[in-house]
Design a protein that fits this description.
Number of domains: 2
Pfam families: DAGK_cat, YegS_C
Protein name: DAGKc domain-containing protein
Strand content: 25-35%
Structural class: alpha+beta
Bound molecules: adenosine-5'-triphosphate
GO cellular component, one term: plasma membrane
Number of helices: 8
Keywords: ATP-binding, Kinase, Nucleotide-binding, Transferase
GO molecular function: ATP binding; kinase activity
Length: 289
């Protein structure tokens, strides 16, 4: 039988060095060598994963597996859109939104095991202007927190919760034009998938291969409304909150009087424009589930 080449792209920053060493050892032990010819590549800087994945496409590698969090998955996946190379994931981040959405096991050993009997499907890809995202992108509080989080030394869920809690009290609602209406929002999130990661379901009815973008606007909560809202986020009911407005479509436009700070799959990005268009390209990324 012809063996398939499979490249693993490891972000050594996500999850810590020990985690990655043990995953690489597990790959050596558990990956079916009758089926695969593996190659392990380590990223050396932000953006490097995209370059390695683009090289894999050029070399007609059938599967590239991202070992990292949603930032790494985004960097690898964006090079695979509209290609014949499929994206696999071994999650080591704190959110792991796309892996959770696709039902990929959180435990590395199980995730490697599922690569031995690969099943794939095509998913949609959304764009914030020209920036691709697979789970969510948005403006407002979440983008603000992603920005602060990215400048912190520590990573992980605990640090994210700390940032969210301390920033909540200071955060001023964002003025913007959404469709034909002027809003003052806490956040606007566009979902290709249903969650940010960590099973925080911000666009709970989103389906990753339905050709549609779900949108959740959160109006500014009072301190008393914040806790129930967080509970609804995690129990998948944010769309029934009094604070939320929900839309679904194939294109959304938002504008502002200042250039937007956005997040895409949890990564912050300061745009050079005050106009944001969210669009979707149907079933253009093959993923291993
Ligand atoms: N070798 C590297 N050195 C520095 N930064 C890197 C390197 N490789 C990748 N990165 C950057 O690390 C950032 C975080 O990656 P990722 O989101 O995968 O991990 P994480 O933050 O641990 O996960 P999560 O977002 O789920 O918490 C990304 O912005 C990516 O560009």
């Amino acid at each position: 039988m012809n063996k398939q080449a499979i490249w693993f792209i490891v972000n050594p920053i996500s999850g810590g060095k020990k985690v990655h060493q043990s995953i690489v050892e597990l790959i050596d032990i558990q990956l079916d060598k009758q089926l695969y010819l593996p190659k392990i590549c380590y990223t050396e800087y932000a953006g490097h994963a995209t370059e390695i994945a683009a090289d894999a496409v050029k070399n007609k590698i059938p599967i590239v597996v991202a070992i990292g969090g949603d930032g790494t998955v985004n960097e690898v996946g964006k090079a695979l859109i509209h290609t014949n190379t499929a994206l696999g994931i071994i999650p080591t981040g704190s959110g792991n939104g796309l892996a959770r959405e696709l039902g990929i096991p959180m435990k590395a050993a199980k995730a490697i095991e599922s690569l031995n009997t690969p099943v794939s499907k095509q998913i949609d890809v959304c764009y914030a202007n020209e920036v691709p995202f697979f789970c969510t992108a948005g403006i407002g509080f979440d983008a603000h927190c992603a920005d602060i989080f990215s400048k912190m030394k520590g990573r992980g869920l605990i640090n994210y919760v700390k940032v969210g809690f301390s920033e909540f009290w200071k955060y001023q609602p964002l003025k913007c034009v959404f469709g034909a209406n002027i809003y003052e929002v806490f956040s606007i999130t566009f979902g290709n998938a249903s969650q940010f990661g960590n099973n925080a379901y911000i666009t709970p009815t989103a389906i990753i291969d339905d050709g549609l973008i779900d949108c959740t606007i959160i109006n500014p909560p009072s301190a008393l409304q914040a806790l129930p809202m967080i509970a609804q986020l995690f129990n998948g009911n944010i769309h029934s909150s009094d604070l939320s407005e929900n839309y679904r479509g194939t294109k959304f436009k938002v504008s502002n009087d200042q250039n937007f700070l956005i997040h895409y799959d949890g990564e912050p990005l300061q745009l050079n424009t005050n106009e944001l268009t969210i669009s979707i390209s149907e079933k253009c990324l093959r993923v291993i589930i």
